[in-house]
Specification:
By secondary structure, the chain is an all-alpha fold. The protein contains five helices and no strands. The protein has one domain. It starts with a helix and ends with a helix.
C-alpha cells in the first residue's frame, strides 16, 4: 500500500464524518450522543472537512507528499485518538468513539510505517 492510498482513505473518512453533523445534526447525535454545544461540533467538523480536502488533494495528485501534509495527517489522527480515549474512559462520550480511535490508530500506524510514498 502506498502513502497516497492511506491519505485518500483518511480524507474520505474525515470528509464523510465531518459532513454528517453539518448536514444532519439530529442523526449524528442519535449515534454519538446529545451535544451541549452545536457550535463546537460545527467548528470541529468544519476544520476536519478542510483537513480532509488536503488529504484527498495530496492523495490524488499522484506525486511526492510534502512532509507538512504527513505531519498534519498524523497530528490530526493522534489528537483525535487521545480525545476519544480520554473522554470515553471518563464516561463523557459514548463508546462508539472507540471505533473512531481504532481507525485513527490504524491510520497512524500505516502512515508511520509506510515505505513508499
Amino acid at each position: 500500500m502506498k502513502g497516497q492510498h492511506i491519505l485518500i482513505f483518511q480524507g474520505l473518512y474525515y470528509f464523510i464524518t465531518a459532513l454528517w453533523p453539518l448536514l444532519h445534526i439530529d442523526s449524528f447525535e442519535v449515534v454519538t450522543g446529545k451535544k451541549r454545544n452545536h457550535w463546537l461540533v460545527y467548528t470541529v467538523a468544519s476544520l476536519l472537512l478542510v483537513s480532509s480536502l488536503v488529504y484527498l488533494y495530496s492523495g490524488f495528485k499522484n506525486a511526492s507528499t510534502p512532509v507538512e501534509t504527513i505531519i498534519l495527517s498524523v497530528g490530526n489522527a493522534l489528537a483525535l485518538t487521545c480525545i476519544d480515549l480520554v473522554f470515553v474512559f471518563k464516561h463523557k462520550i459514548r463508546k462508539i468513539y472507540l471505533l473512531d480511535a481504532s481507525l485513527e490508530l490504524l491510520i497512524i500506524i500505516l502512515l508511520i510505517t509506510i515505505e513508499k510514498w
